[in-house]
From TrEMBL:
Name of the protein this chain belongs to: Winged helix-turn-helix transcriptional regulator
Region named Disordered: 171-199
InterPro entries for the chain: WH-like_DNA-bd_sf, WH_DNA-bd_sf
Domain of life per record: Bacteria
Compositionally biased spans, kind Pro residues: 187-196
Length: 311
């Protein structure tokens, strides 16, 4: 099977839909029309289990309508879809219910996958257009996605930069404030007291403070899912607790689809790591990478040494 990248621009593109007959398939067809595309391949969920993905051209986009699909069917079909993704390099757009987040994310979470939780027609159409835009310049471009990607790239740099600046401020020698003769002797500044690391209770208090703002300002004004999820995973690590994908979506304090998008990007950026559930291979937990943990610890150390309060 050839990958989409193996075809020239003159080749006919292919969007494939995996859906049983019903409302979800109808909504997907309507959304694809709005995205100025067309499904040229179709299979139902039993076909996905059987691996019936035969087609005459490159697969650029796979739309999977999983809402309402039985858990046992998903358990058999998802590994097939993951294999198709690896084989073709296609982008995936998967419509799911809230209760399916952990099962689907455990197999398909990652780069080139858009998980839509209880999506509207507009959500589907936008995701299809964005997915196809990677191969066709005639479709829409995801400007919001570009903006979020830029924010994510800046996140690592900002945490490291703030830590360096605060560390320099904490250790900077105080200059004399009055006018007069300066002493010629050199007295090094006293060493900053060792800053005790934050406890899980400290981090949870910070999270509660961040959520408190939402009671006084318009909803969505302070959305910052990347930092909220980093804090939640750090607190969970201090508590020796495991965090499921669905739980982390709640901690992000944004719509589930937005949270899932950020989880995928944070994982791709090396800040989150997936941890297999030893009791259920279909599920996965999320944790901080060693790099993310080290940066968070440096950040809180710098804050404490400078007498500043985290937000």
């Amino acid at each position: 099977m050839r990958r989409a990248a193996d075809y020239g621009r003159g080749d006919l593109s292919l969007a494939l839909i995996v859906a049983d007959a019903g409302w979800g398939a109808t909504e997907a067809d309507r959304a694809m029309d709005l995205a100025a595309g067309e499904f040229r391949g179709r299979t139902d969920w039993q076909g996905a289990i059987d691996g019936r993905f035969d087609h005459a051209g490159p697969i650029e986009l796979v739309a999977a309508e999983a809402q309402g699909v039985a858990d046992e069917v998903l358990a058999e079909a998802l590994p097939r879809l993951a294999a198709l993704r690896a084989e073709t390099g296609a982008r995936f757009v998967v419509a799911i219910d809230r209760g399916q987040i952990d099962a689907v994310a455990g197999t398909l979470l990652g780069e080139r996958v858009e998980l839509l939780c209880a999506p509207t027609l507009a959500d589907r159409a936008a995701a299809f257009a964005i997915g196809l835009s990677a191969f066709s310049r005639d479709t829409l471009h995801d400007k919001d996605s570009d903006s979020e990607s830029a924010q994510l790239r800046q996140l690592n740099e900002e945490v490291a930069r703030i830590s360096r600046v605060l560390s320099r401020l904490a250790s900077e020698d105080k200059r004399p404030g009055g006018v007069g003769e300066r002493s010629m002797s050199f007295n090094p500044p006293p060493a900053a007291p060792a800053a005790s690391p934050p406890t899980a209770a400290d981090i949870r208090k910070i999270i509660r403070g961040r959520r408190l703002r939402d009671q006084f300002f318009a909803e969505g004004l302070f959305e910052d899912p990347a930092w909220d999820m980093l804090l939640d995973l750090y607190a969970a690590e201090l508590e020796n607790a495991q965090v499921s994908v669905s739980s982390l979506c709640i901690a992000a304090a944004v719509a589930p689809t937005t949270a899932l998008r950020w989880i995928g990007r944070m994982t791709d950026a090396g800040l989150f790591v997936r941890q297999a559930d030893p009791f259920d291979r279909r599920r996965a937990f999320l944790g901080l990478s060693a790099e993310a943990r080290e940066k968070i610890e440096r950040y809180f150390t710098a804050l404490r040494q400078s007498g500043l309060h985290p937000l």
